[in-house]
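From the pipeline queue, job 12 of 40. The input is one protein chain; the requested action is below.

Action: predict structure.
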Amino acid sequence: MYNETIENEKETQVPLLPFGEMLRSLISASSLNEQDLKFVLQNRGIFIKDHRKNNTIPKLTTILLSPREFNILKNRQQFKESTIKTLGRTANWNSTKTIVQTLPDECENFAKNLIDENSSYELKDCRVQYSHPNEVVFFCIIKRNDWTKDVFSQTSYHECKLTVIKEQDTNIVTYFIERTSNETRDFMNKLQNALHNNFQKQGVILNNAPIQKILANHFVSNKTRFEFLKFFTKKSDFLIFEKIIDIDAGIEHNFKEFPGKFRWLKGNIDRISLHGNKIHETDVMELSNIGALKFGEIEADFKFQYSDAKGECIIKYGFSSSYNKEKPVEFESKIINLKLHPNYAHVSRHDVQNFLLKQFQKKKHQLFEEFKKEKKVDTQKYDLVNQHEFEFNS
């Protein structure tokens, strides 16, 4: 579907390299992170103590990027925007009707009408699949045509998918979002909220029933947030944990009892990013267990095996840079590397990836419900502007 859409509509890319203020606006709007910008600067021999974007971007705007440097940023951006990230949200279903019975008429047109005329993207394709009476899947492709949203080309295409499913013998409906670029997340949110409103109007979801998200500051402490993330390293039905190879976390400077060997962190270091093998066996886990770190994300190696596939993968999951952001950060997971066993080389990698991420999201909701019962999360917490962390149309 994706290749067919692109071949049907080819666009000419602008060959000029951006610089100065144009480069500033492009990088600011991109999904490039601090490490990406730091890499380019250090290759130029420019070293700065603070690598936050508000320090690295001004430095980049004072130099002219070479075509090679521009391609480095381009490739990193494209990798980030082609990596599928998953979100899972739930709501209470209050009817014996099926999902298919309560869908709006002409679902494709229903989806297309959600995008404003002045939006930086448009819906190029939307196909709806009815797997069974209580599962519907929206396959969508958006076309982005906005320099302030895309550092590397005037036109690009991005896939996304929304699955609405109600498991048998439960009163829970789940919205599974698979997205790539920021624009696909925006559109998936609009589609999810519109469907949720439609269900409420038909009475199958109560008017006061929210869409439940899992946000970083739902957890009552740093310690319980890390406990939640650590649970994914335990064996499940399909995934077998091997090792943690990367952690990204902020330092909780208000924490009073830093262990002696880590006391130098307090007041001096804002965040740590560790890469290696078996990080979960090192002393740094002591900081995580006592709540001195504000997570962040974890990257871990897993083996997997189920009826259709077997292999290894690396999953990155958690609350991306939540320690640096004022707005609530939602739990996301993504597979950044997947290797199939030779006996399963014929199996679709995309299907395997989707299956594993969906299982990962299911486990997330099961764990979150357990944490609720144990009073380790508070879904009624308020954010910095006194707004609820979840809303009926958030």
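Job complete. The chain has three domains: 15-81, 85-201, 218-373.
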